[in-house]
Amino acid sequence: MSVTIRPYRRGGWEVDIRIRMDDGREIRERRKSPVAAKSGARRWGQARERQLLANGPPRPSKEVPTLVHFAPRYMDGHVRANRLKPSTQAAQDSILRIHLIPTLGQRRLDAIGNEDVQRLKQRLSTRAVKTVNNVLSVLSRLLKCAVEWDVIDTMPCTVRLLPVTPTEAAFHDFDEYERLVEAARATDRRAHAIVLLGGEAGLRCGEMMALEWTDVDFSKRQLRVARSEWKGQVTAPKSGRPRRVPMTTRLQEALRTLRHLRGARVLCETGGSPLTQKVVQNLVRRAARRANLQHEGVHILRHTFCSHLSMQGGPVRAIQVLAGHANLATTQRYMHLSPAAIDATIRLLEGPKSGPRFGDIVETG
Prior knowledge:
The chain is mostly helical. Helices cover about 45% and strands about 10% of the residues. It contains 14 helices and 8 strands. It has helices at about 40-55, 65-80, 85-105, 115-125, 130-150, 175-185, 190-200, 205-210, 250-260, 275-290, 300-310, 315-325, 330, 340-345; strands at about 1-5, 15-20, 25-30, 215, 220-225, 230, 235, 245. A 3-stranded antiparallel sheet has the order 1-2-3, covered by helices on one side. Strands 4-5-8 form a 3-stranded antiparallel sheet. Strands 6-7 form a two-stranded antiparallel ribbon. Strand 6 and strand 7 form a beta hairpin. Helix 7 crosses helix 11. The longest helix has 20 residues, at about 130-150. The N and C termini lie far apart (about 75 Å).
């Protein structure tokens, strides 16, 4: 071990430190002393020598990529490697291309600061809150992956989502739904089945499209919802788990009427090819217009299913299971529609009182 002090060519003192470690490695560090006096430079060099002995040589600085260069690695190493749903993969790729890369693409990951996040929010000020939060969520997940993969040491910024105001899901009331069922029956047998699959079994559009005849058990009067389709790609349902839904009488009759041998799918074209999302949407739209309804979407049928069950007093846990909600909070969005259940709960205060009263002495064992 040695600390050599020599004049620095531009003034001051150069400190040359040589250390041989127990494993045979040699550490050498030469740098200009931050102290002007020679004696001070020597003391600084000796302190630096002790630091190197205790901690070893400094780690080489990382070459941190920019967001535009890291984005493909994130898509391959996280999004695709974890086999996220095709729709999720497409959405994240779109968010990167349309929003994050044009705004932050040339920034190094470790240089993306809080002000950059705020500028991004400002750039998206005309977008819906849900869209902004989706963009921010992808940015946050990308930076967390960079930390996990040791690309950067720590999160360089704080990503705070915009506050979301809870909204009530639109649905058809009982009269509107009956009009829609009758209009669908008069429009097309497939439209009739689609309206009932959504409004009386709670299937999502992709779940309807992927439903096969082997999933329909007429003897037990139930459906097995095990798959979902998105742009020709079949995956598990959104919750990730299959579920079984009992069929109402008219849903069962509609499926019996629709039954065919053209293919495995329940909903298909005359030649046997599966229905596309666009065709399913158009069938429902035609029936809704025929029924003179304001809302024409397919997903409103699922909202109608949950809303009607809640309004009829269905238990929240049962609705969650039937709808295939992964989170109970999603189901609870419909609970304000159950005035009977709320009224019955308040009536508990008027019933016979049980348990200790205020002021009673309760003995414990």
